[in-house]
Design a protein that fits this description.
- It is a single chain.
- The protein is mostly helical.
- The chain has one domain (8-199, 213-410): Growth Hormone, Chain: A.
- The protein is 81% helix and 0% strand.
- The chain is built from 17 helices and no strands.
- The chain has helices spanning 7-19, 21-39, 43-75, 78-95, 106-129, 131-134, 140-167, 182-205, 215-232, 237-268, 272-300, 302-322, 326-337, 340-354, 360-372, 377-389, 392-410.
- Helix 1 runs antiparallel to helix 8 and helix 5 (106-129) runs antiparallel to helix 15.
- The longest helix is centred in the N-terminal third of the chain and has 33 residues, at 43-75.
Length: 416
Amino acid sequence: MPPPMTRRELSWCSYDFANSAFPTVVSTFVIATYVTTAVAADPVQGQAAWGWMQALAGLVIGLASPLLGAVADAGGRRRGLLLVFTLGMVLATAGLWFIAPDPAFLLPALLLVCLATVSFELGTVFYNAMLPAVARAEAMGRLSGAGFAVGYAGGLICLALSLLVLIRPDPPPFGLDRSAAEHVRAVALLVAVWILLFAWPVLVAVPDPAVRPPIRSAIRQGLAEILGLIRRLPREQVLARFLIARLFYTDGLNTLFAFGAIYAAGRFGMGVEEILLFGILLNVTAGIGAFGGGWVEDRLGSRRTVMLSLACVIAIGSAILLIEDKALFWALGAAIGVFFGPAQAASRTLLARLAPEGERAAWFGLFAMSGRITGFVGPALLAAATTAFASQSAGMAVVVLLLAAGLAVLASVRAR
């Protein structure tokens, strides 16, 4: 029987619980839907504008994350930088309260979401880099999986509170004006407060090294480190292949997240409320999978866990493309959710095991870049296939191909 989690481990997991409310409630379900359908002039313009905003955020993240990770390695300021980006995410998210359902507010809404998204992703670089300092080497898989599990739980609880406390009640609570969409806009305030409530323990319990060089020196060292990593990348065959593999399969997973609800609505006629319930179900099964996957990972190894998870997502996803029964779609959708968490959590642990000590934040910067820099490819291929074959299933088949490509490259990685 493994020992209970330490205070540091629990504090580290609490940050996943806090910040997962942002992608679940803001980026995927509530605020994304509000901006693209109620703020934009029409849903087509809203979807296009949202896509370009996400592409811009991905470019900024891809360029900044390796450099910031290297600076954190050189200066040991992971906690301070995590605080800066967490506050940036909170303030930008809270600012969405002022976005009225009027096309004149579309650009401010997109800028705020872009800033919050960049802050979320860059903060995650420093949070992930703390993992080896928090967990024992033999328990990193369990802790990484537990972090993703409580993250899914946090996103689920915040989403449920948003729906049950703010969105569904009529009249809305606290005197909110439904005609001005204040009951939806208040969700942004809920997310901001949620992050503040649960993000602070990691900032207290996981200190930086006692000796830290001046910030100018850290920046110079950081630049030298990231340039050195890039030059060494062709010789770092294991790490290079892993990052290339993750580029493919993360693009597939992200595309699946982004278009799964659209596919469900178009192919199976699911309404908004039904899709939200389906989203809650996915968070539940993904959380269960992430927690259980951590135990599996500590036994099978990180690489094998990622490969097993991807293989299962490919198999279930292929079956979903062939079925027409809604009840079967619900069942398969719940099953595919079980393998999302292990694929993500074990990827994080695998890099923590592969990266040399003292360079982990920089490598996590490249890790973040590999997950975002080609983020436009999956949606573009999906759109092209959907248009060429006039079929949603043909478009979603692109996801399966991206996952298969990632799995094939990962199979050639020989983890140390």
